[in-house]
Amino acid sequence: MQITVLDGRAMNPGDLSWQPLQRLGRLDVYDYTPPKQVVERAEFADILLVNKVVLNEEVLRQLPNLQCICVTATGYNNIDLEAARECGILVCNAVGYSTDSVAQHVFALLLALANQVHAHHISVQAGEWRRSDDFSYTLYAIPELAGKTFGIYGFGRIGQRVAELAQAFGMKVLATHKHPERDARPGVRFVDLPTLFAQSDVVSLHAPLSDENREIVNAEMLKRMKPSAYLINTGRGGLVDEQALQRALQQGQLAGAGLDVLSVEPPSDGNVLTTAPNCLITPHMAWATQASRQRLLDITVENVRGFLMAELQNEVGR
What sign for the dihedral angle of Cα 63, 7, 51, 78? Predict the structure, then answer.
């Protein structure tokens, strides 16, 4: 079997081993594939591994050898599932590999906003501590997380792990979720979305993006937030109306935002949030600890192995 990886750099920038896949077939790995070269590089593949490469109907119908697509991610909106079914192509994804990694990044963003570690570091480098009359100073009022309320929109695996970490900080936890009875947790109170935004000191987004919740964080919802509250988004950029968030930050409707995702990635030149006040942005890296990427590679190897043994796992779209 010919196994072709079209954008391997996302999962493995060079610190992991491709050997487990090499043992399963002939392997070609491309770090990145521009749209114009997808068909050329995938032409002879029996099994195709993609992260964000778009495989639409036009592309899939030009790949007669293709039998299986392994998405090296949880989301698979870059695959035309209906066209894949019509072409007899199986599709599988990877679930659960990034839970701890994303939860860790949520608190990296929150602590960076709350404690302003970088700003104080720059202050010390500039000599302000050396010139100080006292042994200690702060540039801003530093909030204490213990006793505050942490709101979670989307209470799947990642949301549940974030709740555990919030509770470890001594925070109260609110959540909004489609299945509160099924996923009840000690100390977690389920509320509707307006209540979540109004009562939380931190709101963290963890729901998958759909047509129903696109830009669900809009001007009306942002107006409900406390002026001292933070918005954290490690989910999908499309959950947030970026223009509304920029205005809310400019007007002081919330204290700050920590974002790992934007509506267009990489961001277009005119993305309003890249220059918004009190807005911390990281480049969609919450999922990408080395341990998380190793789990992703391990799951992908098992997906390929399962296909070869006619025991496909993590299949989607059926």
Answer: negative
Position 318 scores a pLDDT of 64
The domain spans of the chain are 2-97+290-308, 99-281
Q: Between the CA of residue 241 and those of 115, 153, 207, what are the distances in Å?
A: 26, 15, 15
Sign of CA dihedral 220, 224, 227, 233: negative
Give the CATH superfamily of 99-281.
NAD(P)-binding Rossmann-like Domain (3.40.50.720)
Encode pLDDT of 60-100 as tens digits.
Answer: 999 999 999 999 999 898 999 999 999 999 999 999 999 99
Burial of 304 (0-12, 13-18, 19+ CB in 10 A): buried
Supply the residues annotated as catalytic.
236, 265, 284
**Residue 181, class by beta-carbon neighbours within 10 Å (0-12 exposed, 13-18 middle, 19+ buried)?**
exposed
Lookup: tokens for 247: 């205005």
Whether 99-281 and 2-97+290-308 are alike in CATH topology: the answer is yes
Peptide bond into 143 cis (omega under 30): no
Cβ neighbours around 58 below 10 Å, total: 12
Sequence-separated (6 or more) residues with CB below 8 Å from residue 190? 155, 174, 175, 176, 177, 180, 184
Residue of 73, 4, 92 whose CA lies nearest to 312: 92
Strand partners, 222: none
2-97+290-308 folds as Rossmann fold (3.40.50)
- pLDDT score of 232 more than 80: yes
User: How is residue 88 written in tokens?
Assistant: 């007899």
Q: Kindly report, residue by residue over 258-314, the tens digit of the pLDDT.
A: 999 999 999 977 799 999 999 999 999 999 999 999 999 999 999 999 999 999 889
